[in-house]
Design goal:
Residues 22-152 form the DinB-like domain. Its EC number is 1.14.99.50. Belongs to the EgtB family. Pathway: Amino-acid biosynthesis; ergothioneine biosynthesis. It comes from Plantactinospora endophytica. This protein is of the alpha+beta class. It folds into two domains: 6-158, dinb family like domain (Four Helix Bundle (Hemerythrin (Met), subunit A), Up-down Bundle), CATH 1.20.120; 180-222 and 288-443, paralog of FGE (formylglycine-generating enzyme). The chain is 30% helix and 12% strand. It has ten helices and twelve strands. The protein has helices at residues 14-34, 38-42, 52-71, 103-123, 136-158, 222-230, 242-251, 288-297, 305-313, 440-443; strands at 180-183, 186-190, 206-210, 213-216, 259-261, 266-270, 273-276, 368-375, 395-402, 418-421, 430-431, 435-437. A four-stranded mixed β-sheet has the order 10-9-8-11. α3 runs antiparallel to α5 (136-158). The longest helix is centred in the N-terminal third of the chain and has 23 residues, at 136-158. The chain is globular and about 65 Å long. The structure holds N,N,N-trimethyl-histidine and fe (iii) ion. Fe (iii) ion (FE) binds next to α3 and α5.
Length: 444
């Protein structure tokens, strides 16, 4: 296979595709880091986030480790800094005190690494080792940079001060979307064994049999979530799990992160701009505990990861699992709100072309969706190429999120893609939709 994209761009070679993806990722990293001055780059905007300059040099260091040293067998550019940019050696809160590369040095470092990667890319053969088959390591590094770009975008959202990022508003709603969709009982293929740039935790493809269930046709909106807030949902332990209630109480949660009550209603601050809540926009910046409490209040539950993926990929006509809700073609701006093209989720009904055959909307893009599932390996999981990407996080401490947000690049988003985080986290662009078991009268 020489072309990762399928039929839409048959003439673009794998080499060109890799160069394009690496270039797009770097353009975004540059945009996110040039938006602020040097003081701001080295400052820690939140104890749970790294300074932006750490993300930047870490991006370059991972690229050096995997592409230059491992794939290319080249001599190290800066072996002395590996330890500083190893995410497992230093917790985020300690990173500002490390002797990190300064902004100028970090920019020079990532540029040097990238020049050498392009030199390597010129002559590399995509065969032999599994690491290079179908350009996997290059795809992994493009995804890694984009993942850190989304993390840097989340850091921008936590940053105080006047706005420094801008983008056109998301498209308006153009179609009313129903409340719920019934997904019939039966087997589907979860995960993938064939998608060349799928990461280890998405593999292997395996059959999963699910009873009939009902899933929300769209993510939960600000208006719906506000009804929970107004109903005293944050003050009523009935809706919360034990650990959820404990966290709500100790953290003093009363609303999603960044919400603020003004004279007449609620608004939220987004990348330094305050605006009234948009009622039909998906709620964002809620943790797993909040999502779970809302679902209980609504008489529903969160979908499992398998339920989310079947709704997103299962084609009732062919019985196949597809890459995306709309089919196998790569996302376009008509399908989904991805790639930081906008700086907000789009209202429900803004992406009818991205809906699944069963009529489930906005599964991809807008907001990451919390699922009920702990982060575990699929049957037959094998860590590749390193345990620290996924395997060391397996267990019930983390919950899986699906679908990507407005800040997720298409290269790091697909129907099989799995994200995970701690249940208390809400600085990420996280929302959710609800599900429930089907009633016997609904499946007859
Ligand atoms: C998949 C988003 C949870 O940011 O911790 C970046 C991605 N892994 N560098 C993270 C990742 C290594 C990861 N998430
Ligand atoms: Fe990383």
């Amino acid at each position: 296979m020489t072309d990762v994209r399928s039929d839409d761009r048959p003439t673009e070679s794998l080499r060109d595709r890799i160069a394009t993806e690496l270039g797009r990722a770097r353009d975004r990293s540059v945009r996110l880091t040039e938006a602020v001055d040097d003081d701001d780059l080295v400052r820690q905007h939140s104890p749970i986030m790294s300074p932006l300059v750490w993300d930047l040099a870490h991006i370059g260091n991972q690229e050096e480790l995997w592409l230059l040293r491992d794939v290319g067998g080249r001599t190290p550019v800066r072996q002395d800094i590996d330890e500083l940019y190893d995410a497992f050696k230093h917790p985020r809160k300690d990173r500002p005190a490390l002797p990190l590369l300064g902004p100028t040095e970090a920019r020079r470092y990532v540029g040097t690494v990238r020049d050498k990667v392009f030199d390597l890319l010129d002559g590399v053969r995509f065969e032999g080792r599994r690491l290079v088959t179908d350009g996997f390591a290059f795809g992994m590094i493009a995804q890694h940079e984009q993942q850190h770009d989304e993390t840097m975008l989340a850091t921008h959202q936590l940053r105080a001060g006047p706005p420094v990022l801008s983008a056109p508003p998301p498209p308006p709603s153009v179609r009313p979307v129903g409340a719920e969709v019934l997904v019939p009982a039966g087997r589907f293929t979860m995960g993938t064994s064939t998608d060349p740039w799928a990461l280890d935790n998405e593999r292997p493809g395996h059959p999963v049999d699910l009873p009939a269930y009902v899933i929300d046709a769209a993510p939960v909106t600000n208006a719906a979530y506000l009804a929970f807030v107004d109903d005293g949902g944050y003050a009523d332990p009935r809706w919360w799990s034990g650990p959820g209630w404990q966290h709500r109480s100790s953290a003093g949660l009363t609303a999603p992160m960044h919400w603020r009550r003004d004279g007449t209603g609620w608004g939220c601050t987004r990348f330094g701009r305050y605006a009234p809540l948009v009622p039909d926009e998906p709620v964002v910046h809620v943790g797993y505990h909040e999502a779970e409490a809302y679902a209980a209040w609504a008489g529903k539950r969160l979908p499992t990861e398998a339920e989310w993926e079947k709704a997103a990929r299962w084609d009732p006509v062919s019985g196949r699992s597809r890459r995306y809700p709309w089919g196998d073609e790569d996302p376009t701006p008509e399908h989904a709100n991805l790639g930081q093209r906008h700086l907000a989720p789009a209202p429900v009904g803004a992406y009818p072309a991205g809906a699944s055959p069963l009529g489930v909307h906005q599964l991809i893009g807008d907001v990451w969706e919390w699922t009920a599932s702990p982060f575990l390996g699929y049957p037959g999981f094998a860590a590749f190429p390193y345990r620290e990407y996924s395997e060391v996080f397996f267990g019930s401490d983390y919950r899986v999120l699906r679908g990507g947000s407005f800040g997720t690049d298409p290269v790091a988003c697909r129907g099989t893609f799995r994200n995970w985080d701690l249940p208390i986290r809400r600085q990420i662009f996280s929302g959710f939709r609800c599900a429930r078991d089907a009633r016997p009268d609904e499946t007859a």
